[in-house]
Amino acid sequence: MVNEAFVLAGGRSQRMGVDKARVAWPGRWPMASWVAAVIARVVPVVRIVRAAPDPLGFAFPAEPWVRAPGRPIEVIVDDPSLPVHPLRGVAAALRAATTPLVLIAATDLVDLTEAVVRELVQAGGPAVACVGGRPALLAVLPADRAPVAEALTREGGSFRELVAGLRPVAVSDALATNQNTPPRDGPLAVLRQRLPRFDERIRQGEVARLSARGAVDPSAV
Description:
Blueprint: E1 4-10, H1 31-40, E2 45-50, E3 67-68, E4 71-72, E5 74-77, H2 87-96, E6 101-106, H3 114-121, E7 127-131, E8 134-142, H4 146-155, H5 159-162, E9 167-170, H6 187-194, H7 200-212
Parallel strand pairs: 1-2, 1-6, 2-5, 7-9
Antiparallel strand pairs: 3-4, 6-8, 7-8
């Protein structure tokens, strides 16, 4: 049974140029919240893994980083003693796990569906989503692989090595594609459509409001 999941929110994205996890998607919720909300329909406990230190200086882990529709999301912070590496967040998730099996998902799987999450969870054990035979950063992992994830992080290893031998679950490319461009219908675009008058004062106030709640990276709007 999989009762715990982690969304790997990381930090600032070099490809997107902003803190990807905070980009509002689709037009309203931060990307990490959006992915977490999909997973929460299947897995009861969902947490966010953030890079340390938080790029925008928000308090953690005592205060929720963002709020998904209806409930707060707990945040854990990865180990800054490990090298910067895609597996650092995975290692932190596995170390923080309180159950033998946990679901992990990248923050930018914005087309993730409940059906795909359910298929992975119901695989009956460790499993990894695969697109064309390649593992996606979406898997059910044993928590006891934390030392392996940490070692691969130090050695510059790969996610493929971490999930070697896990049951593959084939998914379509559209459902496991990383999102590396901001949406066109961001929160300010939506507000512009709704207000008859939208000026710089309103824009600055809205950016400040969204930034204060951790809902958007100011540089992304």
